[in-house]
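dude i think i finally got it to work??
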Amino acid sequence: MIGIAVTFLSGRYHATPWGRHVNEGVPEWPPSPWRLLRAIISVWQRTAKDVPEEQVRGLIDKLAVAPEFWLPPATLAQVRYYMPWFKKGPGDRTLIMDTFVAPDQERPLVAHWPEANLESEERDLLGRLVRNIPYLGRAESWVSIDLTQDYRTNCAPLDERRMLEGDTGADGSEPVRVLLPAAGDGFAFTDLLIDTTDLRLRRRRIDPPGSKWVTYARPRNVLRHGADPALAMAKARAKARLHRDEVNMARYALDGNPTPLVTETVTVGEVARRAAMARYGRANGGAASPVLAGKDANGVPLKGHRHAFYLPTDEDLDGRLDHLTIYASSGFSQAEQEALASLRELKFGEGAGEVRLLLLGLGTTGDLVRPGRASDLGPAAIWQSATPYIMTRHPKASRGGQPRLTPLGFQRDGPEDQILNEWENRRKEDPSLPELVHIERVDRSNLKGRRISWLQFRRWRRFGGGESVGGAYGFRLTFAAPIPGPVALGYGNHFGLGLFRAVGQGGRA
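look at this
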């Protein structure tokens, strides 16, 4: 057994978990063993090159197992400030959210490896290296580290049986995902040497090779929350995602000069699909992903709406698209996640310009949407059209031209009837969905006082697919209970047509 004690001299620990964006406001706590081992190797390369690589390799191999932690009381806090952006000129700037953990400076964090049996020379080497680590995480997270025989534990790997049975909180603990070396499963010393920029831009990966995620149990009260209540929601999002395989959503911010008009939603959605498919194909020997493409290996369109939706949105209602959400209820595989994480831009053809993409996060709706904050993604019981609903069948009428009515008073196969039927079909696939109890027509889209006719939107896909009978309608839908988004119905719904915005019980009023 060997242990180290980490004292945070600046009173702050700044570090963002792998695969998360800094503006999600989710800090890493405890520090990941992957980060600790990289810090040890970095110090060896900078200050102890007289030590043969074989000795360092042997030490790292013994530490490439799951440690246990003692986490001191800490406060979860954040500051917000403007950073120069220089996209539109010298005075351009962007708001940054800097979330960090403020541990008790008098009580060090302890990490110890119960299974690591080090020889005396290896202990001496470890002590020499960790004492020279100046910071952990970001450069302002100054630390003092030394060996310790204090082997207290309040944060350890969560028992797999308890995790599967959902028994994670009876003892006052909560789950947290921690990045570790995948010891005995393809891990190599050189994996810890890979540069992060190289990992993302050249290798197109999110998680480092040779790593794995392990779910730990940590005390629920180990992090006190600072003044911003939104940070508590960030903690809940981190708890919700126990396994990387559960990822079913990617969120991006759009950056362009200017970004496309909201009336071009379907065009942006189609270009996003083509870009994601291209990224996947280049990284996987030309293979196609049915989830990203919406088609099987024979080119037959998938049914059931479990494949990817590409949904551009205007979330500040200024008339221009500012976000892109790619969502699939079936979830994204690791290869699909890596393709989505590598998206950097959308190209609209020669002379048509491009839009840059900033990945905000990969996760679930619970990860990427803060409850209590206005969001197009809900959850909400009332949803209103953000883009026009387009019918896929012609309304029915008698030979005399009179509309044929349903028992609810809607024209048979009219837009209201088609929405009801489509929603009932989705409820058959997912019985947890609530009933649609009220439909009200909305004649125009309201954007900060400006009203845009539904007919001003592009209403057909550029690259074909699906059937439309034309027309353009807007609705306000009320469900029997709040539902999470996204909600998109009708023709082109996988590309942003028929998209609804949450407006009640958690949405924008």
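The CA atoms of residues 40 and 129 lie 6 Å apart.
im so relieved honestly
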